[in-house]
Amino acid sequence: MKNITKLGAVSALSLIVGASAAFAENIKVAFIDPLSGPFASTGTNGLHQFEFAADYMVNQKGGLLDGAQMEVLGFDNKVSPKESLIQLQVAIDQGVRYIVQGNSSGVAIALTEAIEKHNSRNPDSRVLFLNYAAVDPVLTNEKCNFWHFRFDANADIKMDALTDVIAENDDIKKVYIIGQDYSFGKAVGDAAVSMLGEKRSDIEIVGNELHPIGKVKDFTPYSRKIVASGADAVITGNWGSDMLGLGKSIIDNGFTGPIYTYYAAGSGITAAFGESGKGVIRLISEGQVNPPPSPEAAAYYDAFKVKYPDGNIDQTRISNTIGMLAAAITKAGTADDVVAVANALEGMEYDSMWGGKLMMRPDDHQLIQDMHIAAHTNEGITYTFDNSEYGVLVESTVEMASADIASTCEMKRP
């Protein structure tokens, strides 16, 4: 009798433990971006934003499906495509099914190609690539694939909105283009030349050059050429320490015209520009934090600052990525079948707390959304960056930017 009772108790306990293990199975998201080196501050702040979004938007609301929690794991890729592929395999071996990355389109291209090969060879451990910031247009054009989704606007979409604003400014007659020497920097330069030519053929491109990424310590030679060119405006896609180094050098060498940028906010950049960036730095981006577009956005930002007093929400697309992933998993009814989740993401419309409707275009997996041009300032803002008195204030908006822009993607679905 005792043996039977003991056996029954053990069996019951095993069922409880098994059920608890299944209930507690985390949905793992691998963040593969720089956590060391010259771009560490950019990567670390991005990781904190992903961790917070998963906790605030998913875990604190009871999780997904049967209460599964979303866990964000950080992997340092040192902005190296080779290192990124190593970290990708480590993540897959740990049971990760969702990869997020954004810093460097060169890395993104390596990842999307590797993921496509992995998924074709390993149908039982397929993964999705949720690209939150790598904006080389090729990723949703000739290099598109079913497993890749981009939550940021690509470089052409951003440049289309940016050049609309430049074209309306009659004071701009000469433009200097400068960027980092890799695929994204080249894409920005090509788009600027092409779109300015179409919209304002009278504008003269007085410079168009690239510099080594993450290696320039002194941008003075570049800045002097810009000032000497007589440029009325500068366009750059630089990010991280290269954005700060270039921008500070241009201003310090006497340039007073607008510097149109993609990534000149947060991660120490805003504080470092300070008063010198006022009236000069312009930023093209998705989302809006000043003024806060909704009470939900304000509450989210306030809660983030409580947890990360030194951090910034300078990439609203990160919470959009987590929110849309959660919605897709819920719709699919599974987190393990990434094909079902991908099908749920395709064509999804999502109301962002940061303003506007988002739509994941099914043809190429490019998110269509509003684009904003904001100015670096300390006036009229609710949320500042880098614990400084400065932030960015939206000056103009292009709704659902480039929704009809052509794509050369030929999607092959499983």
Automatic annotation (TrEMBL):
Location of the Leucine-binding protein domain: 27-375
First and last residue of the signal peptide: 1-24
Taxonomy of the source species: Bacteria, Pseudomonadati, Pseudomonadota, Alphaproteobacteria, Rhodobacterales
Protein's recorded name: Amino acid/amide ABC transporter substrate-binding protein (HAAT family)
Matches recorded under InterPro entries: BCAA_transport, Leu-bd, Leu_Ile_Val-bd, Peripla_BP_I
Gene giving rise to this polypeptide: livK
Pfam assignment, any one: Peripla_BP_6
Keyword Signal appears in the UniProt entry: yes
Alphabetical keyword list: Amino-acid transport, Plasmid, Signal, Transport
Entry keyword annotation includes ATP-binding: no
